[in-house]
Write a structure and sequence with these properties.
There is one protein chain. This protein has 17 helices and 14 strands. It has one domain: Creatine Kinase, Chain A, domain 2. The longest helix is centred in the last third of the chain and has 23 residues. A hairpin with a 2-residue loop joins strand 9 and strand 10. By secondary structure, the protein is an alpha+beta fold. Pathway: Sulfur metabolism; glutathione biosynthesis; glutathione from L-cysteine and L-glutamate: step 1/2.
Length: 537
C-alpha cells in the first residue's frame, strides 16, 4: 500500500535559500568548490588488464598532485583541482585524460566501472610507491586489502565528487539560526546533516546515474550469484542500475557488514571509525601481519586505516603532511564531503557529464540546507535497504521503497525530491543568469518518466542492438573515447608544464627515499600507535 502522507514540506529549505541569496549575501553559493577523482583501469587493446607499470612519464604515483594509482598499478586515478564551476572542473579532467593518453602508447583507459578482462586474482599487480617508508606503507595496505577482499574487487572503478560550500554560507546560517555552537562545530554539524540527508536519498543517484547493470562472467570467479545470463560471457540483472554499488561490489565486505558509522555527531563518527581502526578482528588476526618475514597488512583490525571504510559519502578535511584523516577532522572539523557512489558514465569521454555535475550541485545543496533528522540504527538500515534495492532493480516498474517505516512508491518520492532540487537549481541559476541547473534537473526528470533514458538501460540496449558482450561494449566505448583524446592533444606549453611537474614529482620521491631515516618496522609501529593514542576507545 502506498504512503498517503502529504509531501515533505520545503519551508526550511526555502528559508535557508532565501538567507543565502538575498542582499549582500547573494553570491555566496557561487563560491563553493567541487573537485573530481576518477579511477580508470589501464587495459590493452583487447580489453585485458595492462600488466605494465604506471608510466614513468606521468610522474610519481606517490607525490604527483593530479595523477596517482589506486589499488593496482594499472588503476590510474586522475585528480582535478577544486574549482568553483563544475564546467571548469570537467575541463581540468579532460586535460588530464589528454595528458595520460599522450603517454599510454597502445593502451586504453577502460571507461566503465566494472572491470574488463582480468588475470587470475593473484596476478593482478598491486600498486608500488617506491622504497620510502610511506611508499612501502601504501603498498602493504593494499596487500592487506587483497587478503581481506580479494584483488578482483579492488579493480572496480568509480568517480568521486568532492563538494564544499563557502565558509560564508555557514557563517550566515550560523547567525540566522542563532546557534550557540562554535563556527567550526556548526559547520561540521551542517555537513553531517548533509550526509544524513544524502544517506536517506542517495538511491536517487543510483537510479539516475547508475551505469553498471552488467559484468563479465569471470569477474565473479565462480562464486554463487543471482544474476541472469545476458550471453555466454556476460551476466546482468534486467532492472539493475549499479552492480558496482550492490552487494556484489563494495557493500558486501565481511568485517564492514557490521560497521555502522555514526553520522549524528562528529565525535560519534570519529569514535566509530577510531574503534574500527583499533579493534582486532579474529579472521584478520588469523592472517597476521607477516608472511615469510614480509609485511602483508598494517594491522589485524576491522579497518587497517580509516580510508578502508567503504561508504557512499565521507566527511573530509584536507590533511597536513603525515596527518591522519581522523585527526584532521577532530582538530579542525569537516571541510567538505566526498560523494563516492557515482559509476563511470561509459557514454562520456571523461566518465561524467556536465549535466550530472550540475544536478549533483543542486541535489547536494538541498541535502545541506534541508531539515535533517538524526539517523538512528533503524533509519540507517532502512536507507541501506532502499539503496540496495535500487542498485539491483531500480528500473522495475512500480518499484516501492520504505520511508520512515512506511511503503512509498519510488516515483512519488523521487518527484518530491526533484521539487526540492528544482528550488536549489533556480537559486543557482539566478547567480549565473542562465538555466543550466534547471535544464540538468529537467533531464533527470525525463529519466524518471522514461527509464530507457537512464545510463543503465542505455548500456543494455546498446549491447542488445550491437549484439555485444560486456567486454565488447567496454572495448568499443573505450576505443571511441581514446580516439577523441588522442585527436585533441594538449597544447605544447601545457604539455611542457605537465612534463616538468612529472619530473618534479619523481625528484620529490627520490629525495624522500634518500633522506629516509628509521626502519620500516619502527615507522609502522609509530603509525599504529598514533591512531591508538589520538583516539582513546
Amino acid at each position: 500500500m502506498s504512503n498517503t502522507k502529504p509531501p515533505h514540506h520545503c519551508a526550511a529549505l526555502s528559508h535557508r535559500l532565501s538567507v543565502l541569496t538575498s542582499g549582500a549575501a547573494r553570491d555566496v553559493l557561487a563560491q563553493g568548490l567541487r573537485g573530481i577523482e576518477k579511477e580508470s583501469l589501464r587495459v590493452t587493446r583487447d580489453g585485458a588488464l595492462a600488466m605494465t607499470p604506471h608510466p614513468r612519464a606521468l610522474g610519481s604515483a606517490l607525490t604527483h598532485p593530479s595523477l596517482t594509482t589506486d589499488y593496482s598499478e594499472a588503476l590510474i586515478e586522475l585528480i582535478t583541482p577544486a574549482e568553483r564551476d563544475p564546467a571548469t572542473t570537467l575541463e581540468r579532467l579532460d586535460e588530464l585524460h589528454r595528458l595520460v593518453y599522450s603517454q599510454l602508447g597502445d593502451e586504453l583507459l577502460w571507461n566503465l566501472s566494472m572491470p574488463g578482462q582480468l588475470p587470475e586474482d593473484d596476478d593482478i599487480p598491486i600498486a608500488q610507491y617506491g622504497t620510502s617508508n610511506i611508499g612501502r606503507l601504501k603498498t602493504v595496505y593494499r596487500k592487506g586489502l587483497a587478503l581481506r577482499y580479494g584483488r578482483t574487487m579492488q579493480c572496480i572503478a568509480g568517480i568521486h565528487y568532492n563538494y564544499s560550500l563557502a565558509d560564508d554560507v555557514w557563517r550566515l546560517l550560523h547567525t540566522d539560526q542563532h546557534s550557540t555552537a562554535s563556527a567550526v562545530d556548526f559547520q561540521s554539524e551542517r555537513y553531517l546533516a548533509l550526509i544524513r540527508n544524502f544517506r536517506r536519498t542517495n538511491w536517487l543517484l543510483m537510479y539516475l546515474f547508475g551505469a553498471s547493470p552488467a559484468l563479465d562472467r569471470h569477474f565473479l570467479r565462480g562464486k554463487p550469484h543471482k544474476l541472469d545470463a545476458f550471453d555466454a560471457d556476460t551476466l546482468y540483472r534486467p532492472y539493475a542500475t549499479s552492480l558496482r554499488m550492490s552487494d556484489l561490489g563494495y557493500s558486501n565486505t565481511t568485517a564492514q557488514a557490521a560497521l555502522q558509522a555514526d553520522y549524528n555527531t562528529l565525535p560519534g563518527y570519529l569514535d566509530a571509525l577510531a574503534k574500527a581502526v583499533s579493534q582486532p578482528y579474529p579472521p584478520y588476526e588469523a592472517i597476521g601481519t607477516h608472511r615469510d618475514g614480509e609485511w602483508v597488512q598494517i594491522n589485524t583490525n576491522v579497518l587497517q586505516i580509516e580510508n578502508e571504510f567503504y561508504s557512499t559519502i565521507r566527511p573530509k578535511r584536507v590533511t597536513y603532511p603525515g596527518e591522519r584523516p581522523l585527526h584532521a577532522l577532530a582538530a579542525r572539523g569537516v571541510q567538505y564531503v566526498e560523494v563516492r557512489c557515482l559509476d563511470i558514465d561509459p557514454f562520456e569521454p571523461t566518465g561524467i557529464a556536465i549535466d550530472t555535475a550540475r544536478f549533483l550541485d543542486a541535489y547536494l545543496l538541498v541535502c545541506a540546507l534541508d531539515d535533517s533528522p538524526l539517523l538512528p540504527p533503524d533509519a540507517y538500515a532502512e536507507a541501506n535497504a532502499n539503496f540496495g534495492r535500487i542498485t539491483l532493480e531500480g528500473r522495475k516498474p512500480g518499484l516501492e521503497l520504505t520511508r520512515d517505516g512506511q511503503t512509498v512508491a519510488m516515483q512519488d518520492w523521487a518527484a518530491e525530491l526533484l521539487s526540492k532540487i528544482d528550488l536549489a537549481a533556480q537559486a543557482l541559476d539566478a547567480l549565473r543568469g542562465d538555466d543550466a541547473h534547471a535544464r540538468a534537473v529537467a533531464q533527470q526528470r525525463d529519466k524518471l518518466a522514461d527509464a530507457s533514458k537512464t545510463p543503465s538501460a542505455r548500456v543494455l540496449q546498446t549491447m542488445r542492438d550491437k549484439q555485444q558482450s560486456f567486454l565488447a561494449f567496454g572495448r568499443a566505448q573505450s576505443e571511441t573515447h581514446a580516439a577523441y583524446f588522442r585527436a585533441h592533444p594538449l597544447p605544447e606549453e601545457a604539455a611542457r608544464e605537465a612534463a616538468a611537474l612529472a619530473a618534479r614529482s619523481l625528484d620529490e620521491q627520490a629525495q624522500m627515499e634518500r633522506s629516509e631515516v628509521g626502519s620500516f618496522d619502527a615507522f609502522v609501529a609509530a603509525y599504529r600507535a598514533y591512531t591508538l593514542n589520538r583516539f582513546s576507545v
